[in-house]
Structure formats: C-alpha cells, structure tokens
Amino acid sequence: MGSQSNRTKVVMSADKPDDLITSDNPDHPANLIPSLCAKFWTLGWVTGTGGGCSIREDDLVYIAPSGVQKELMKPTDIYVLSLAAQTDPTLRQRTYLRSPPCYKPSQCTPLFLAAFTRRGAGCCIHTHSHWAVLVTLLLEQQQGDSSKVFEINNIEQIKGFGRGMGKTGNLGYHDTLRIPVIENTPHEEDLTEFLEEAMEQYPDTYAVLVRRHGVYVWGDNVHKAKTQCESLDYLFQLAVEMKQLGLPWISQVTPVGPQR
Amino acid sequence: MGSQSNRTKVVMSADKPDDLITSDNPDHPANLIPSLCAKFWTLGWVTGTGGGCSIREDDLVYIAPSGVQKELMKPTDIYVLSLAAQTDPTLRQRTYLRSPPCYKPSQCTPLFLAAFTRRGAGCCIHTHSHWAVLVTLLLEQQQGDSSKVFEINNIEQIKGFGRGMGKTGNLGYHDTLRIPVIENTPHEEDLTEFLEEAMEQYPDTYAVLVRRHGVYVWGDNVHKAKTQCESLDYLFQLAVEMKQLGLPWISQVTPVGPQR
Amino acid sequence: MGSQSNRTKVVMSADKPDDLITSDNPDHPANLIPSLCAKFWTLGWVTGTGGGCSIREDDLVYIAPSGVQKELMKPTDIYVLSLAAQTDPTLRQRTYLRSPPCYKPSQCTPLFLAAFTRRGAGCCIHTHSHWAVLVTLLLEQQQGDSSKVFEINNIEQIKGFGRGMGKTGNLGYHDTLRIPVIENTPHEEDLTEFLEEAMEQYPDTYAVLVRRHGVYVWGDNVHKAKTQCESLDYLFQLAVEMKQLGLPWISQVTPVGPQR
Amino acid sequence: MGSQSNRTKVVMSADKPDDLITSDNPDHPANLIPSLCAKFWTLGWVTGTGGGCSIREDDLVYIAPSGVQKELMKPTDIYVLSLAAQTDPTLRQRTYLRSPPCYKPSQCTPLFLAAFTRRGAGCCIHTHSHWAVLVTLLLEQQQGDSSKVFEINNIEQIKGFGRGMGKTGNLGYHDTLRIPVIENTPHEEDLTEFLEEAMEQYPDTYAVLVRRHGVYVWGDNVHKAKTQCESLDYLFQLAVEMKQLGLPWISQVTPVGPQR
Lengths: 260, 260, 260, 260
Known about the structure:
The structure is a homotetramer. Chain A is an alpha+beta fold. Helices cover 32% and strands 16% of the residues of chain A. Chain A has two domains: 1-106, 3-Layer(aba) Sandwich (L-fuculose-1-phosphate Aldolase), CATH 3.40.225.10; 130-248, 3-Layer(aba) Sandwich (L-fuculose-1-phosphate Aldolase). Chain A is globular.
C-alpha cells in the first residue's frame, strides 16, 4: 500500500481533481474501469447498473459511481479517494479527492475498501452474474453449514485461483475451492461486516458470494482480479449445469500421472 | 410534458420535417433509437423486426417504423409526432410531423403513447425477449388470478426498479416486484385498452407483460427505461432458470443486518 | 425473374467475371453475402463452415463457396451463375459466370436454386442452428406423420412469416405455423428432390427443416429471408425451452379483443 | 515439416528474435494467434487465461505464453521455438528462439508439440469450453470403456471432420465420430504421454478430450484446426442439450436418398 510520500502527493493533486482521472494510458485506472465495465456488461455481470469495479494504485482508490449504465461509463464519471484517509480514526466521514457532479458514490464502496485494507488487493470486482445467484439459491436448499459455502473440486479451471494472500502459487486440480456465502442485507453497505467476517473465517479466499445477490472477487492487481472473476463465473455456470444434469460438485477422482 | 410553447415550436418545425431527425448529438432521439435498437438486437429482444423503442422529449414523440431490421435502423427511418395532437379530441386521425417514405407506422404506437400520456414516461421499450414469453407461459399453467401477475422477491436486482411514478426511491430487496400480465390480441393496437387497464390496476408498475408475446417497459427517461428493462429481463431469465431447478420465485427470507 | 435483356447482359459481363462481384454498394450481393454470413456466424448458424447463404438478383445468382470460414468471407470468394442457364434443358452441366480459384462450389447450390426457380425467392439462407437440429430430434421421438412437421401456434413471433408466395400479408397470432421436416441424406445435393417434394406438399411454406442437420429458409428478398430466418430460429429456441419446461407447442387460447 | 535449410534459417534469424514475430501480414502466426485467441475468448473457450493456441510453419512453432489474458494478447507475447530442436535427442532442455520477458512458457507446450511431431499438424487449439467438460462428466457416469470415448452419429456437423491424417475426404453423415477421453493430471505437461497414447489408439482422431478439463483439437493448418474445433464444440453443446432432453447420442437412422 501507498507510502507516506504517495499520500502527500494525493492530497496535493486533489487541488486539481480532474488530473486524477486524466491520462492517455489505456491502463490508467480511470480509463481501465470504463473499458472493463463495458466488457463485463457484455458478459451479463453488470446488467441494469448492477455490480461494479474498483481499482487501487498505492493509496489512490478509483470507484465507479452508483446507478450508471456500466457499458457507457466515462473516465470523468470516476470517484477517487485516499485509502489511508478512510482508515484514519480521527476522520468521521468518507471524503473524496474527486467527486463527479450529478452522481452518488457507489454503495459498494465499503466492500471494495475491505478488500483493499484487509487483503491489500489492487482490484475488486462485484458482479450480479445470475450463475452466482443461482449457485447461492441451490446452496440455500441444503441444511446447516453446507448452505454457507460453495465447494467444488477436480475441475481444471480451479487452477485459476491463488492459494491465498501471501502464499505462493495457485490451487491444484485436486484441491477443493471454497467460496463462503453471506446472507444479503437490504442496504449494500451493511454487507461490509459480514464480508469482513467471511474474510476472517476464510483467510485464503479471494471471493465472497452474497446470497440472492452476486459475488465479490478481488486480486493483487487488475489482471488477477479479472481472471479469478472469470474463472469463478465459469465454475458457477458449470456448477448450475452439473446440477441440471444430476452431477455432483464434489467427487472422488483417482489421481493419474506422477504425484509430485 | 411539453408546454404550449413547445407544441407551437413543433408545428412550425414540421415544415422541414427532416430537421426533426437531424442532429450531431448521439443522444438525440433520432440517433439514440437506432443505437439502442442495435444493442437490443444483440440481446435477442428485437429479433426478426419484432419489438421496438420510442422516446418522448417534451411534446415530441420519436418512433421506429414497423417491419424494419432493428440492428440496421437509421435516423431517417424515424417517425415523429406531437403528443398533444394525439390527445386533442377535435382530431380524428393520427397525424405525423414526419413520416419516412416506404414505411408503415409501428403497430406499437398507441401502446407507447399510453406510457407517455398516462405515466408521463420519457421512453418506452417493447421486447419479444423469450425469457419474458417463457415467464408468461409458465404463469399460464397456474390457476386463476395467480396466472395474471409475475411476482418475485428477495433478489438484489429488484432494487433496479422505482417504487412507482411520483414516488421517491426504488424497491427494496425484500419487496415483492409485481408485473401484471395481459392476454395477447391478434392486432397489436388492440392491446392498448388492456395495457391501460393494467396500468390502472397496478398504478406503481413500470412494465406490463403480454402473454405469449413479450413485455412493455417504460421509465421517466431513456436511462431509467433501459436499465429497468435490463433488470427485468435479468429477472425473467433467472425466474425461468429457477423453475428448471425447482426453486420458488417467492420466498421467506429471515432479514439480516440493521433494519432501517 | 430476369427478363431476356437481363440474361443477355449476364452473358456479356461474364467476359470480365470480376465485374460481377465488384461494387462499392454495401447492399450489392457480393458484399452483402459476406456481411450477412459474418453476422450469422455470431448467431451460431454457420459454425465450422456449415450453412450458407445465396442471393438472386434477376437472373444472377450469387453463392458462397463450400468449406469457407463464414465470418471471414470476402466478395472475391463468391460464385456467380445464371439462373436461366441452370434450367435450360439443352445444358448438361452447371456452368458458372464466375468461379473463384481454389474453391469448390457449395453443395447447397441445387437447394438454393430450388427456392429461386420454384418460389421466385430472392434470397435463401441455410443454417445449422442447433435449435433447428434439436427441434427435428424432438419430433423424431413422435410416431407417424407428426414427426414430419413442426407446428406451433399462439406465439406473437409467428406474425414474422408471410402467408405464402403470392398471398398478401403475414400469418396471424392464432394461426398455426407449419414447417415440414425432411430426412437428411449423406450428400447434401441429394436433399433437393425431398426439398422440392416438401415445397409441393406445403405450398405456403418459406422454410424446410432437415432432420439432424438444420433448416433452409427463403424469402422474396434478403430482408424477408433474413427476418423469417431470425423469427424461425427464435421459435425453434422457444420450442426447445418449452419442451424442457413441459409446455406444449400447440395450445387452445381463448381469443381476446375485437375479432376482425 | 521443415527441411534442413529451414532449420538453418531459423537458427540464424534467432539472432534477431523479434524479427520472428514482426510482420504486417495479418495471417502471420504472431498476428494470427492473438486474433484467434480474442475470438476464442468471446466463445468462452479460453476464459480466465485457460486454454491456448499454437501454430507451426515448417520448423517454426509459435506459442502463446502461460497465464496471459487471451483476448488482450499481443504479437510480442509470442514464444517461438524450432520443432527439430525439440526432437533432437542430443538436447537436454527445451530452448526457445524467442522468449518474451516477464512470461513463462505455456504448460501446454509438449501437448502442442505432440500434435506437430506425431501428426504433422500445422495448428493445435486447446479449449476449456464447458461443453467439452460437461461431455466428459456425463461420460464419467458410464461404466467401463464407454466412459473413455465420446461417440455421436447421424448429425450433419460430423461432416466437418477429416477421415484422418493421410486419408482423403471427410467423415460422412452416417459415420460415428469418436473422440477419446483421457484422465486429467495435476500438471498439464504430464498429460503428454496419455495424449500420445490416445493418438496411437485412435490413429484417425484430430482431437482428444481431457476429463474435467477441456479438449485438444488439431489440423493440417489453421483453417482446418479452427473449423474442426468449432464443429466439435457445436457437437459437444448439442450432446449436452440432447442429454437434458433425454435424446441418445447414437441412433439407428434408416438411410435416405441414393446410396453411393
């Protein structure tokens, strides 16, 4: 996360807030969030202004506004805030280095911040993918704790996930991927404490499902957050189709090939 | 709706009808309807010239013609009419400020007008989405009045809908979204009285399903009509998939988080 | 169909065959076939070089070659032949006004010609849409003649079809759409006699399903062939989904609204 | 495969490795792999960096790196190696004529090489298509050897496959397409021996399914590999849908038309 010098730079540049979102570089967060969201729209992840995406670079956090058509977003729509300022206990209220007029901040903001502060993530994606929603509905039919975690194993795409923050390498083919499920709340920001609880209970997870709502997925950087989110959506879709065909999500498979 | 001065302006500009559909602004209705319809075509909403879209700005109503390939539409294809003139009881017949040659006016015209005059809508979208059609077919299997309204609750995407014309804010997560279903008629314009009846019976609805046909969705402006239409299609798709998986549309969910 | 003067023109222009496929007009058949096929590829209609499209203008018939990747086709890939020459009994063999080097003529050629000569069609589309294939597989499970025709009624999209060659207007909502099904043959050109038989038996049809293979759809012109093909694919998809949900294709619906 | 003169040329050009991936020709392998992978991404074949594609021209083999977002790949991301050098028994380790910095070679490399050396293929595609995965899961439910091969017959799209390396012509409509299934291994390169075994056991196959993982498909050139891969994915999707509708993959169909 950002050094002290970075934070100083931030406060200064906030005098000209539009500098924070003006760049010719397509990989600048203010350009990347709109292009990612347009792509996510075609995937059905951010239908009807639902879902969103946030990127952190050092201390700066870039967030899409609430209620915007995700495939039409522009760099000038982006909010910018200082991560350090959010966690400063002397501050009472969230302050923005840049706030676009005519918009409201995203209700997802505290959830994105949780991924940045508690996991040091560089990007967090929130989708309303109906595959994610269907998986939580199918789990809801089960009794007890088994309804509170999605589990799948022995599928190649599981290798698309890291072993956990601070661990090296990715999950293996025979590992069981576990994604915790939290219950939905009427107000999105009220999900924060439950998301944080799930993060504590599953210290290696890069994602949390929200029942009847969608999923939050993060990663060290945009590349990892996006590819983990794609891999997860692939697995959710596969899981729903497996259920329709009567195939179980957890299996015993006899290992093949050299065991290293 | 348009003031008297607006109407006067309309009648004057009709001397040069092509001025009504000529603009460099991509958000001008004559440019927006073609670009929206091209997008709707890729979503499967306006397959084979079915479905359509109309935008109202003050007194002016812009409508796509009948029988046109929706992904190929051009601004010069657009009909324009004065809303006030349609409701003037001294007029016998619908008159257009601009009529493209070689086309016929859309049969959806009186249904779009109902959304504009009775709800003050700024945009109305009509889709043949097969998710909408399947939902009406599934409801048809039920007995009595339950076949005449689509109901779903406890899904996050429900928050994509307004509480109703003149009310502030959107539906909540635990609210039940209700979309009335009317029976289809052989001639589309004959749907008008049933659509208006449904509007009266469901004063807060922004949409009406038409059995074995599709859905009409409107909103205060293009942004709201489009995002409500997307959210609804998302819910229709989810509902069909829930039915395939044996999951009920209406559920009892124990509230979580602070109740405000 | 082409007048004698048209035919004369054709034979002359065949001295410079590339003139037949060179035009700046995006609606020229040699430009339109590639752009249509690219669109059909994204719809899953012409996967893996399957399917195709042919356009007739007066006496000239434009056909895509065999075995080409449909989303990559170029105007220079197009074959051109004279329709009159094909039906001239003094000719023994099919001759082309223009043959692109390195390609083979499409095996669909005699089937496209059947639509042009027997129905005066201006365009014929052949898809391998898996919705079409699934409908023929579902019908195959039925006994006797009911396996040889796809029937559906009381769906709005049925209005996307004409009543039949030489008849005015389109089918109504309550009409039953009937599409004959013929059995597949190992060699595509051998389908021709069965396609022609089906055309005779169903004089009003604009399409013929081929069991375990796909569908042929035609129309007076490109617009009509394409929109009828889209409407049909929509109905095939709906029919498969209805079957998955236990809903019948043929229903008794009480008429609503004024009966005219 | 490359002659000695080709190999000499390769070793020389490796002095300026970037020449190997620099060309204005869109059909140059270093340009074609990125454009193909972008297309495959939209088809859901290479989600979340999964899957890949390799092209061989004479002795030169072009391979995408590991862990890259497939729709964003650039020519400068491409690895190049000499095929002859890989099979030279005096060499101990794989050497690359060009290695992009910051990347790791694809774990699929030995599997692609197997298609090039054992079948003389010009292109090999590896997808994680969930249709392929679902087919292997459905087969896993069966007892004994029937779980180790996917079989389907009497579907037109089967004609999209060649009869086998060195044989002329394609499979016929009534032929049974057989694609062997191998079990997945924790490390992708460990699949190589099983893939090669399957190639020996099924000398005519152009594809091998990997249980719970995906499929490898190859062909004499890019055109054939891509169209065979598309046709196969079409058949996998159809097979899953047939299973959902209770329709068998293998059928007895009475031949129709002239038998030649």
